[in-house]
Amino acid sequence: MTETVDVVLIGGGIMSATLGAFLHELQPDWKIVAVERLSEVAQESSNAFNNAGTGHSALCELNYTPQAPDGSVEIAKAISINEQFQLSRQFWSSLVERGILSAPDTFINPTPHMTFVRGEKNVAFLKKRHELLKEQTLFADMQYSEDSRVINQWAPLLMQRRLKADEPFAATRVTAGTDVDFGSLTRQLFAHLAGSGVQLRTDTEVRDLKRQGDGTWQVRYRRTIGRAPGRINARFVFVGAGGWALKLLQKSGIPEIKGYGCFPIGGQWLMTSDPKIVAQHHAKVYSKATVGAPPMSVPHLDTRVVDGKASVLFGPFATFSPKFLKNGSMWDIVTQVRFSNVFSMLKVAFTNVDLIRYLFSELAKNHHRKVKDLRELMPSAEDDDWTLLQAGQRAQVMYQGQLKFGTEVVSHADGSIAGLLGASPGASTAVPIMLALLKTCFPQQFASWEPKIRELIPTYGQNLNDQPELAHETMAETAQDLKIIA
């Protein structure tokens, strides 16, 4: 007899962990099963070294403040991303208070967020961006400087051996930025769920999704050890399987997935744990993207703290693999093709020549050339101090002839199944993404859940940027709870 449960979460990453944590708090009587094809959770995009761990809040990422053809700078998306990250901070703070998450420094650490640019045009853009953002409540603490002495105090590695006469440069800095170990956060959430009655089944690969006559979804799986097949029926299914979410949603047959495709892009970091270098850099420094580069490939020099050990990463450098996951299949890029998406994907290929050119240029770089790119931000970098580290695999969304760089939730009209596609800002905004999913997929229950949601996230449903007093109070409280006061 096939077992029937309330919820099946497919994928052992931060999205499934966050949704599971919400559902367990909101509906503790529901039976939840989480399945992961690898032997451990948080081994793909949520792994600490597979993502930037920036705690994306638009403090330093220039792609969230695009410049229009007329020279104006658009800041609406930056405000929206920051608002979303504040919800994540409040949720994590509540879970720390409840003892669900361990000491904050096991997953989040204060790390200033900086932007550094060179050249007159880029300096003018950064200055205009700063002038607009500093008037916004959530960005009021942003500092700006073109003074090498000031920037040297903020991030010495940016200034060593750099000559001001070469070209103008400028930087912004927000001390309230964070570095987040999403791998640790994911593992802690799943450990709590597994200890509270949620079934976590690793080494379990979902092979098919089929709608049953009673409205449930039959989740067909196979154990990766022993290859034993199995099946389970669920009233609701969430597909948080990274790049494989597309493949599984296609198997489900829901019409909402028609037209979607994915373009896989891998990445590599240059990494150093040399104490002399690490001691001189305590910041996440983002710069301008290369022409044609996707937003996730914006060069950045990052402080990372993983398992209590600090290192510095630079990158990411784009790589190519047909796999949709780091541990995926070489046939992923082919098996996604359907009549409903093939022409859309071909249009993307023909209209994104700059991206193709960028990928080829990245693939041609050896270690020396990658360190040469690093010297654009850190002029004193030496080849021997840095090693290459393989980063995560991303499946960029293609839809209706466009390459899309955000995250998208695709759900069936009746709310019985939903999945997440895309990458940036991803993990940092898992909390608001899952809240939006809950509202869409559980409209009948959501109203009764809202009081509990507001216990976990006091400002849910409000815009902090429009309420300076509430914003300052909320940000100060979460900073205190998470011990991220710089």
Which properties best describe this structure?
486 residues
Largest sheet: 10 strands, mixed
Number of strands: 20
Cα radius of gyration in angstroms: 22 Å
Helix content: 25-40%
Which strand-content bin applies to the residues? 15-25%
Tell me about this structure.
The chain is an alpha+beta fold and about 475 residues long. About 35% of the residues lie in helices and about 25% in strands. The chain contains 15 helices and 20 strands. The strands form three sheets. Strands 4, 5, 6, 12, 13, 14, 15, 16, 17 and 18 form a ten-stranded mixed sheet that branches. Strands 1, 2, 8, 9, 10, 11, 19 and 20 form an eight-stranded mixed sheet that branches. Strand 17 and strand 18 (about 400-405) form a beta hairpin. The chain is globular. The mean pLDDT is about 90.
